[in-house]
Amino acid sequence: MPVLRTLVHRNPNPPYFLCNTYRLFNAQNTESYEPTATHYDNLINAAARKGDFAAVGNLLNKRVRDGCFNTKRTFDFITNTDAGISVLDELSQTLAHLDHGFPRKSAYDSLIARLCKINRVDDSLRLVNTMIQSNYGVNASTFHPILNALTRKRNIEEARRVMKIMREIRVSPDVTAYNYLLTAQCFTGNLNAAAGLLKEMEAAGMAADTRTYDALVLGACRAGKVEGAMVLLRRMEDEGVGILYSTHAHVINGLLKLGYYAQAVEFVMIYGGKDKKLDEENFGILGSRLIYLKRFEEAKVVLKEMRKRGLVMRSHELQDFYELNLTQNF
Question: Which candidate among 33, 152, 176, 303 keeps its CA 20 to 30 Å from the CA of 214?
Fold first, then answer.
């Protein structure tokens, strides 16, 4: 495939996140300690399970002052059961009395994310309505978990309705919001709908980011247009857009789906040598898929290259195949 030859090496630089904490003193112990987000999550969940929502409110305020922001575990006591949901109204009232600004807004956002995780999208939308009515600072990020939950279920029409609500309350959908819909449309191979979303983004003055391109590459590959996916990769490199590991995986799977086994091997070779973790991911995915497809000769080439490059074979499948077919050569 000639377009393979034009690809230039570029590697993603996954971000690292740090939790900033501040020093506290225990009232019953003069020894200092560092509070953590996990520590506060545990205290909040314990207090909520005892029904002590006054303590929950105090802890939610204090953790922000201590620089330990809410996490995906903060509201783990909310479960998709009658008992778990029964405390939702009381919890919402507690959040309404938190410190103004970020403490209250971030707590509502975290609770909405928790509800979406347990498939309670309707409850999360009711919380959004509370935030709107009380002017608690709803913005695009508030809607992200809702759009994510809906599009993962391919509920595109409902996701569109949520986007309409955003516009009605003058919250402009951002690139992340569009990316959720775009990924869902591309996953189903609906490139016409994806093109329409891109036009909307362009009209709103939005630039494509890493996940936008990832969705487009996915859509091209699922539609059997792998050369188009290669063109997108080249454009990402030209524009300095980082390429996700999943974007490479889309191309590998797209090539294999079309029976382009040699080209898939060539593809991972072209991108090899710059990022060891990416190499382990790409070579590992390709090796496993080739074994599954019974393309054993190509699989041997890939695993030999992994051995030569010092790449870890993370799956037992790869290790067993290597031991059985290639150890006699070393």
Answer: 303
Residues in the chain where the model's pLDDT stays below 70: 1-33, 328-330
Q: Which residues contact 55 (CB under 8 A, 6 or more apart)?
A: 43, 47
- Which pLDDT belongs to residue 19? 35
Question: 97 phi and psi, to 5 degrees?
Answer: -100, 10
Pairing relation of β-strands 29-33 and 24-26? Answer: antiparallel
Q: pTM of the entire structure?
A: 0.83
Q: How far is CA 262 from the centre of its chain?
A: 31
Q: Per residue in 194-218, pLDDT tens? A: 999 999 999 999 999 999 999 999 9
**In the prediction, which pLDDT does 327 show?**
83
